[in-house]
Structures are given as structure tokens and as C-alpha cells.
Amino acid sequence: MRSRFRCRLAVLAAAGLIAGCGTAAGPDYAPVFVSLNGVITSSQIATPSQVRVALIWKHKDPDGNLVRSAQELPVASQFPVRFRLDITSLPPLEALNQRDLGGGQFDPNWRYATGTLVVYEDLDGNGVLDLVRTDAETTVDRVLGAPEHLSVFYTEGSNVRAGGPGAQPGFNLRREPPLVDPAPGDAMCSAHPQGAQQYLPLSTEIPVALTAAPELSREMCAVMDPSPGGCSPPSCQPLPVPAGAQLTCSADGTAFVYKVCPAGGGLCASTACRYGCATRAPSDPIPPGWPCP
Amino acid sequence: MRVSSARTALGAAWFFAASSAIAVPEERLAVIAGANIGGPEDDPLRYAEADARRFRDVLVELGQIRPDRAILSIGGSPEQIRQALIEARGRAAEIQRSGSRVALFFYYSGHGDEAGLHLPRGTLPLSELRAEMARVPADLRISFLDACRASGRSKGVRRGPDFDLSVAPDSPQGTVELRASSSGEAAQESEELSGAVFTHFLLSGLRGAADLDGDGRVTLAELYAYAYRRTLFRSGVGPTLQHPTMAIELAGAGEVVLTVPARASATIEVPSGRERYLVFAIPSAAVLGEMAADEVPRLALPAGRYLVARHSSSATAVATVDLSLGGRRQLVEKDFQPISREELALRGGHIELRSYRFEPRVGVEYGPRSALPFALRTGAALVLTQGDLEWEFEAAYVGGSASITGWQGTEQAVSGGPGITFRQFFGPWMLSEALGVELRYSWQQLERLDRRRVEEAGFTGTQSRSFGSGGPRAGVRLALSMGNHWTGSLGLTSIAFFRREASADSARTVFRPTFFGEVAVGYAF
After folding, report:
1. What is the spatial distance between Cα B195 and Cα A211, in angstroms, rounded to a whole number?
2. Contact B180, B200 (CB under 8 A)
3. ipTM of the complex as predicted
């Protein structure tokens, strides 16, 4: 009787041990590379039911077009206040850039990608953020919000350590400084960041305001026209100043900057402003068409 | 001419001296009744109904009676037997219209007395039974009455009146009645034989043990001579003697051939000697017949597996015979293994000479929605056989390519567990239904498809995981016997596996049904 009880106990123990030890990788096994934490700081809209989060990777093609690819992120927590995002796959290969070594040379051992988180309403319920064509007039889904001046920066390759202070191999959270217009007399005649990029701990809460602002829809453009590049004097040909340009002159009138921003255009047309600038010595004669007194 | 009921085989042999086959087309009918429960005063019998079934089986196997013409009434009332005889009457008339002779067999096993057969809901008077049989338009009527009279489990029917006999130069026509005992005697049941003594020897005789002339046919004379002699001998070792009797009212010439054992699908022959052999079916352990080696050392059987128990004055021994595919098997001395009298008496036909079986198995496993959708499964089972049941323990290796999105690699496992099987025999085939438990320990060696990128991004590109699974399993197996030792089988099994599986952010217990098919070769020892 006693030995029978022991035998049953042993069988049960063996079954329990086997069933209880270890975990298998199932067919959909996807371990988390990085988890990001977000918080909804404000909401000017009623939170819809089909809210999802995607990571939009941005990549410039050889023609200068901005190409986007979306990577869906599982949301571990529930809206409306806090959420956790698990990144379980690497950025797609098409989102990767190689470090430009100059002279048309690129470093194959230093690849990177920059992405933006977007909170969107999955209007067609297909579970993915639907990017639209360049000539699209409307979008399929609706972007509700995106963190300002925060991006996900990803690097891979054997030379990744050269990625800059604070950048680690893999996923990074990076604060992007705001872009400011050039001032009269600046060496570069284009918008430039005000301050340095800053790498933040991955545990940093990412603030997102849900505004559903129309300009957020542009995040869903798969390809955007190239932005006009800047120029540096004297290669710029700023004169004559286009009509309607927003002009800024230096106090002594020897330097100016103007900005022409496109009006209208399609959903995915470039909205980047074009700048022009010039500087002259106080003793130089005033060139014809010089806009500043 | 009037002939008194025969008491000895000599008397019967005198009447059936001529030897010829059935000369004219003959169609046979049988009404077979058995009732364990008799009247209010009768103690229940154990084997009467089983005897009736076995008698029917022998008539169908060897007696040239179509199964649909063997009308069986088990545990029924007098009315049921009357109805069975009325049905036989109609069928006999139909056969006669087709121009064939009709032979009617009637068998009864149960309680009875001088007046009639004791059935659960009344008594069927013997006079009425005979009258009902007489109404059946048959050329030949043969009845076998193995009935119990006294309290306890002894049996008896009083002798009937003598019959007139007239000889005519054609096939025998008339009535024959064989009874288990003489007037005032009790017929007996036997635990060892799992049946009534008289019926046991009737069955053995019909299966060929009575075929003294060895012509492959058992005639009425041979059967009575054999059953009389063996029943009397057997009852001689008990408290009371039992003298079977036969009453005959026949006209015509030629023999009444009851069965043709030569046409049996399987035959067992035993070595000559003075031993007595009992044949049990496997796995039912039913006694199919008995042979006396110094008389007729062979027995006709249906295809199947058998245990042959040998009794001699000094020792007992057993042998197993696999005649699943039919055929003839001559047992020799080395086929027998000694066994104690006590064990043989205790277990009878349940003795398993080769109760263990080793069975290497190989097959394919299918696990839908698991990381190992297809895998090779190879292993072996050790099986212990006990009658209709088998206890088995199977151990197997399972291995194959892992199928995980974004990963490649292998999964291997050791798997197995105990099980219990219920087996059924269909000729040479054995169908088993199994229930058991499967326990499994698995190893996964995984590598990301983008391993190089992942590692260059500072993450790990490979993983080794181990885990356990467990759950109930159920399956069926179809086995074909290939002799005394070997079997080939094909099995299908399903397992309800439960295991812990990792998802993106946690682990949870999941249900993973798994199926596998195997082929196996078993060796019994």
C-alpha cells in the first residue's frame, strides 16, 4: 500500500517536473529587443478604440527622397494614459542608411536607421499603418500623435562604436534639437538644429500628445519629394529675392536671409522651405536688387 | 422395426454402418437456445448461454449452416423458442419448395426436467417442443438437450420413449434426440471446461475429436460414441455418473454427417500419447475443445490464436499456437512448456506464454501550431499482455527542424510514457485501443535568420532552450500476427500536450495537440 502510494507520488512528481520546467519557443516566438515606455500627455480628441502604435523608419534614397517604412509595435499596456512598446524585430533592410564617408564612399560596417513613433487609429482595421503613395490625396489610417523631437535611432555593424557619444549598438532613444531658420550672416543658408542631439536612457518616458493634427498625416507618405538643400555663400544666388519671400535683414543692412515656403501642394509634397541669403562688406557697393536698406 | 434408445457407441455405429456422403442437396436449419436462469426452484447456471453460442458457432463453421439460418434464443421465454421454431418452419417450407432436403438441428442448454425445459418465464413442455419440431417440414430432425434438473448446477433430462425405425434405401429421414444424461442422472457443468460437460464433448466431437475413422467428417454415430464415452469417463471422476442417451427414429440409408472438420480454416494436431489436451481461445480464454491423443489427435478450429493445455497423469504443460491466418499446425514436444497444475487450474486459458513483447517503432509526428510541425519519431515499446489488456511503456526519440518565424534550428526530444491497451481480434488482425500518458523533455537549438545583423546590433543571435511537456494520449493500432512471435502493426496516436511557451513578454501554458503515425514490428517472448 505504502509503496503504491510512493510510486504514484513519483509519477506525479515526474510529470510535474517535466511539465513545469523550462519554456518552449512557440511558432510565433519573438523575444523583445527593447521596450519603450510612453505616456499620453494630452489629448484633444476622444481616444478611438482601434489605437495602435507604429515605428516609422525614414530613409533617404539616392535621389534624396524621404522613404518611409512602418514597423508595427505590440502595445503591452492599455491606452489612454501609459503604454509600453516592445520592439521585437530589427528595422527593415530598406530603412538602413550607411554612414557617408564623403566622396561617394559609404561605410558598410556602420549602418543606421532613424525612426519616429506614431500613435494612429487603424481605420481599416487591418492591423498595420497603411502608408500611401506620393500622389495620394487622402490617407487610409489617421495619425493621432507623435512625440516631438524624439526619435528612435538604431545602429548596427562592426564600427558602431563610432556612432557618437551616447549611441549604443542597437536601439537608442534620441532627443532631436529643434530646427531653426538661418540668421543673416550665417555661414550656412539653411535651417539647422539648435543645439546637439542627446541620447536618453531607453527607460525614458516618451510623451505623446494626441492632436490628430492634419500635418501628422504626412507621416503616412511612403515617399516624399526631396527637400531643397541649403547653400553657403557665395555659391548661393540669392538675387533677385523672389516675390512673396519672407525677408530678414541684418541691422546694418549688409546681410539678409529670405525664406520661401511652399503653399498648397499634395499630401506628400515637400513642405520644406527654401532659403536664400547673401552678405556684403559695408564698403562694397550695393548690388542691384539688394533687398535691405 | 423398433429400436430402443442407444446407450453405447456400438449401438449407434450399428445403425450408421454405411458410409457415404450426403447424396442429395441438403439445406440445414438450426434453432439454438440457452438459458442460465431456469424456474424459481433452479439455481442459476453459469455456462448454459455461452454453450448455446459456442454450439451455434460450430454449426456455422463446420456444420454447413448459413449464419442467417442458425436462429439463436438466449435467456428467452418458452414463447421465444416457439417463435424460433415457427420461423424455422417457414424457412424449411421455403427450402423444400426449392427442391432441397431440409435438416433441422435443435439445441438447448439450461434447466429442465422430465416434463419440459425450465425457462425464465415458464416451462416449455417436451411434448410441445417435439410437436413443434414435428411441424417443421424437415426430412431430418436432430435435437441436442443438455438440461439440468436438480438443485445446484447439475443437469438432466429423462429418457424419452423408444422410437420406431424403418429402413429405406435413400438418405436418412426421421428424428434423433441426444440427451445429456439418462433417467435419474444429473448433467453437470464444469469450471475447468467453462461449460456443461456433455456440451463440451459434443463441441469437441463436432470439431473433429470424434472423427475416429479420420475421413474428415463427423457422423452422428461417431459423435454420440465419442460424447458418450468421454462424458461418462469425465463424470466418473466426480460424485455422479452421467450417461448420455440417444433416441433414434430414422429411415433410409447412409450416414448422417454432422460436421466436416476437414474444411476448417485451421487445425491443430497434437503428439500421439495418452495425454489429454484442452484448447483455449486467446484472449477470451473460452474452451473450444478437447482432444485425447490416443483417439483423434486433431481439432478443427476457426482461424485465431490458441492456448493448448496438456494434461497427463504426471505433469501439465502449455503451448500457444497462432493460426490467425488459418492452416494446420502440428504441435511437437518442444512447443510445450511445463506449468504447475495449480497455475493451470487457477488461470486456465488466461495463461500467457509470451506475455512480453518488444516492439521497435518508427513514424512521423505532426504538431500543428507548434514549433515542431513535422518530426521523425523512433523508439520502442515494452508491452505486457494480460488477456484482453496490454500494459505498455514506450520511449522514443523525436526530432526535426524547428519552424519559428524569424528563426531556424532544430528541436529534439525524448518522449514516452505508460499506457494501457484494450485489444480485440478480427481473424489475423488485432485492433488495439490505447490510453496513456506522454511525458516529453525537449531541446531547441535556434538561430535567428538575421543572426549577423542581430549580433552586430549587440543582441544574441542564438538560443538554446529546454522544456518539458506532458499530457494524455489516445490511439489505435492495427496489428497483423505473423507467427507465434512476430507481429507487424500500424498505429495512430494523438497527444494532448500542455507546455509552457514563451511569447513576446511572458510565458504561458499552451495546449498543443500532436498526432503521430507509426509502423512497428513486435517480438513476443
Report:
1. 93
2. no
3. 0.79
